[in-house]
Predict the 3D structure of the following.
Amino acid sequence: MTTGPALVSILRQGSYLIASIHTALDDSQMIRFQHDLIEQIGRHRSRGVIIDVAALDVVDSFGSRTLRNIAEMARLRGALTVIVGIQPDVAFAMVALGMGTGSVYTALDLEEGLAYLDSRVSKKVLGGTVIDPPQ
Amino acid sequence: MRRIVSARVADRTTADDLVQETLVRVLAATARVEPGMLEPYAIVTARNVVASMWQERDRHRRNQHRVVDLRAPEDPGTDLLAREERTAIARALERLSERERQTLLAHEVSGQDTRSLAAELGTTAGAVAAQLNRTRARLRVEYLLALERTEPPTDRCRPVLLALSSGDRRRQREVDAGRHLLECDPCARLSEPLMGRGQQRDDLTRIPIHRDGDIVAARQGARDLATRLRFSRTDLTVISTAVSEVARNIVRFAGAGEIVVELLEAPRRGIRVTARDTGPGIPDLEQALTDGYSTYHGLGLGLPGARRLMDEFAIVSEAGRGTTVTMTKWRQEG
């Protein structure tokens, strides 16, 4: 991981990656986080990704767009993404700002997120609905 | 008489002057003084003359800093600097109108109070004080210009510098001082000592915006300031999100600008965010305020989103000069 432990951490937990954002990231740090995460999905052959944004006090248009992009890229790489820990005030501001993140799965916290992945990923493997990522 | 004076005044020429003055006064008074009393009268007069000279000097010393309070930090032994300063002050004084100069000198150097000045000028003491304040503000500006040996590059510069020097916030807004300082490098430099004047405002944060990291700094700065007005947590997040959007616009489209966040007390309590840049300007404002419009890979939510988040939103853009976004969030009372 090149972003350094102070800003974000990406931990491997079985076939899942748990990425926590620890502090406000600027745009270029956000983009680097996106690269690191997508790259690690391939390296660890992860089937699920949890992004914990509980520490973020602002998710603006760029932030939510990046989260949406990460989820979409992860999907193309064969992993399901769940965003967890969106604070109530942040949720309010995101709606007021008019950001549509409806296509991204969310859960209240890490525990809910893991439960959600457990329920979905096994099904997905059985169903084999994942598009092979282009190499 | 000379003995009395020189016992009190070391400087010979000054002593001579004072003796002369005493003589004049005594001669003028001979008619009123009893013949035998002339000598004691002269002695008392001499004492008075000396005392009033001391008073004068003392007052001069006390008031001097008010005439020139922009002097660079003292650097003993640099006579040259002192001389340049004197020339600058003289030149600055020349720039004042005759009446302004007379009034200022009468008040600051001769120590005439505003009331008697008002009587002479046929106006009120308050008006004289206000006039003196304006004159001092002008003197500071002219002094700085004279010291730098420059003339301001545009005719907008002087009004802006004057507004900054007088600390008049309403006037500063009228002449759009913030924008001018972004655009005009000489004024930005000249205004530095002027900005430090008056009360330091702790209800205002100014954040220069150049790169990605500044966006985070801007929203943090806005949040810190808004916290002081006890905005709700939700409003704090809403404000920082809106600041984030306008700050990003500066970085993406203009490259350089600033965000000023200030607390408002009237008409209601609230927070005002002003985002200025010196970028190319926005050609089609209506389009820029439409959801989904974006010239970079965003969601196209920057400006319309910020507008939705805040209570008041205004945008002014001029091609080639830049854009100013002003937005306000009022605090919900109760």
